[in-house]
Design brief:
Helices cover 4% and strands 47% of the residues. The longest helix is centred in the C-terminal third of the chain and has 5 residues, at 104-108. Strands 2, 4, 5, 6, 9, 10 and 11 form a seven-stranded mixed sheet that branches. Strands 1-3-8-7 form a four-stranded antiparallel sheet, with no helix packed on it. The protein is mainly β. It contains one helix and eleven strands.
Length: 130
């Protein structure tokens, strides 16, 4: 099992950008489909984006399509989330998660509550001010 640690969250004005990173420990990271999820106050955790183990496939929630980009560097055991054109409604705690048992596509259609993936980070807060 890998362990995950997010970084890069913070406060940004609407229209701004942030890049989140998720560093993984463990030699099996390259076999994991990886995803980013978020949870806003008072709301359920929701899917944001996912990427296959070889970065060949990516999936996005409609709400972030065209603004967010997921990528991974298996040599560095890291997955990234580039967030552009941020909106106040993007405010949430962002979690990275991974699982070697499912595909990125399957990760993109998980039903709530989303909590049964193999590995989760602790989360990083993103606050977008208007």
């Amino acid at each position: 099992q890998v362990q995950l640690q997010e970084s890069g969250g913070g406060l940004v004005q609407a229209g701004g950008s942030l890049r989140l990173s998720c560093a993984a420990s463990g030699r099996t990271f390259s076999s994991y489909a990886m995803g980013w999820f978020r949870q806003a106050p008072g709301k359920e955790r929701e899917f944001v984006t996912a990427i296959g183990w070889n970065a060949g496939n990516t999936y996005y929630a409609d709400s972030v399509k065209g603004r967010f980009t997921i990528s991974r560097d298996n040599a560095k055991n890291t997955v990234y989330l580039q967030m552009n054109s941020l909106k106040p409604e993007d405010t949430a705690v962002y979690y990275c998660a991974g699982d070697p048992r499912i595909t990125a596509m399957a990760m993109s259609v998980l039903s709530a509550p989303i909590n049964n993936l193999d590995a989760w980070g602790q989360g990083t807060l993103v606050t977008v001010s208007s």
